[in-house]
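Summary for the steering committee. The consortium agreed at its last meeting that each partner would contribute one worked example illustrating the joint modelling workflow. Our contribution is presented below. We chose a case with several input lines so that the handling of multiple components could be demonstrated. No manual editing was applied between input and output; the record is shown as generated.
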Amino acid sequence: MVWNKKAECMEIEEKKELQLKLLKDTVKKAYDNVPFYKKRFDEAGITHEDIQSLEDIEKLPFTTKTDLRDAYPFGMFAVPDDDIVEIHTSSGTTGKPTVSGYTEKDIEIWSEVVARSITMALGTEGDKIQNCYGYGLFTGGLGIHYGSHKVGATVIPISAGNTKRQVEVMKDFQSTILTCTPSYALYLAEVLEKEGLNPEEISLKSGIFGAEMWTEEMREELERRLGIVALNIYGLTEIIGPGVAQECTAKAGLHISDDHFYPEVIDVKTHQALEEGKKGELVLTTLTREGMPIIRFRTKDITALRIGKCECGRTLVRMDRITGRSDDMLKIRGVMVFPSQIERALLKIDDLSPNYQIIVTRPKHLDELEVRVEASAELFSDEMKKMEEVEAKIANKIHKEIGLRVNVSLTEPETLPRSEGKAVRVLDLRKFD
Ligand code: DLL
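What follows is the complete predicted structure of the assembly.
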């Protein structure tokens, strides 16, 4: 169990003092060691000396995903390469991912914040954590892994996929905590039921679910079908990975480890800071990271902050569950997908019109992606076989681009809806609000 009472229950005023000190330090380190930040701060005419209060953070420029992509691969690192002991990337499979570099101390911080998360989700020394987040460059698998060690629990590093084996392991090893995306957890619940196993026959007590949006309705369903407490974990590669924030059993918002990550919520249009309780875009600044300090990262995730003591005793700032994005990024089975990647794949094929629509659904608890594309008149009047060949070709090109299998259907020319303004390319029929 890792309940760092000093940090997690600190008086709010004392916390603010600590955050200010760490913020100044981070700004100075970023300026001195990362050319990108030196240039940005010089352009804005600002130095760490201008940070005299936490509100002064608003004087600092934002960092965006594009900035990180432009710095690919190691342009954001603030320490010599020798000091970086591990590298992860965001979950998209093609295009330039964003890279995150960790020093030994960063891995220690990451272990600590994930250990806090596991503790909030009832995890202690005696637990067996079945970790079905993907291992590898994705932060999910190893992040939970490090946190489990720190808690002193037993981690089962089964990684994602192979559902039959997951069920077997869950039964035979008597896993007590399940960690995976909420949609995969629902799928597992379904498979367990098919195998005739009811919640009493498995040993699970809690689930740590995140990496994608989910809802209260999904929570209720997961809790009922698996006989567990289902809790929400939030995080992102750019900041550290999972463990930026986590719900405790009070389910009153996700506690942000704000002695390591400083949160703001801004109005998406005006970029002004919003007060507590108002929904906007979450902006995060790392306060303790060595390898890759990140200042005012625009997460594009929509949420609101809640200040004050939780009934669990923690004073860490809380955020509401994420209800949307301020850009068009989709998470499909935990993997980041931008519609522009699909468009790029389509543009590589002749005989298509530039009209397409991406439809996301979640029929049996797993995300499905359908891409409808208008065929040219010539192609459409051709034989069926040719159409099928083109559909398969499109599906392959998209697979190469995003790493996921999609269903492709060619439609008659001029049948997809036209829009007067911005084209509505994506129909996300999963409900998160
Ligand atoms: O998804 C890290 C992670 C792994 C979090 C395991 C939780 C559990 P990325 O691939 O960089 O990192 O994706 C980050 O995923 O900006 C959100 O849009 C979304 N996301 C992550 N957690 C949640 C959540 C990992 N609990 C992006 N609810 C973020 C809603 C989430 N969206």
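The first helix runs from residue 5 to 8. Residues 90-91, 133, 139-140, 210-213, 232-237, 241-242, 299, 301, 322, 331, 336 surround DLL (CB under 6 Å).
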